[in-house]
Amino acid sequence: MAQETYRVLVAEDGYAWRATIVRMLEGLGLACVDVEDGLDAAALLQDPAEVFHLAVTDFRMPRGSGWRVVEAARAHRGASFPVIMQTAESQYPDVYLRAQELRVRLIAKDDIYTLLVPAVREALRLQDDG
Fold it and tell me: Which residues pair with 83 in a beta bridge?
């Protein structure tokens, strides 16, 4: 793994999902900052004092959607800032189309356990230790 400690912003309104994602990412040696909605995530991304290397966000949250997180990331972190969005709305083609347009990796919640870690490794260019 790289010597730098990567910081990941995790935005997910469901406590169990948020805890699962954080546990998976911390297992990679990543430092996580977790929030329960898109508004708080967007505010953190807008703060230049906060260092983040990746955002993992839910699509639908009560306060601020995943799109708000993506928009804040693009506006304040640049077009190449990596964002991974996980969703239970994966059956809707328009969600995938918008994610593709915004260059966001979209993962169905059912696939989190198998696809999140490889997606994070790819986004941060981490070596696979195993």
Answer: 55
| Domain of residue 33, CATH code | 3.40.50.2300
pLDDT tens for the 130 residues of the chain, in order: 445 789 999 999 999 999 999 999 999 999 999 999 999 999 999 999 999 999 999 999 989 899 999 999 999 999 999 999 998 876 778 888 888 888 899 999 999 999 999 999 999 999 876 5
Residues with Cβ within 8 Å of residue 72, at least 6 apart in sequence: 41, 42, 43, 45, 46
CA distance 123 to 64: 23
In-domain check, residue 130: no
pTM: 0.92
Tally of domains within the chain? 1
Q: Which domain holds residue 117?
A: 7-124
- 2 inside domain: no
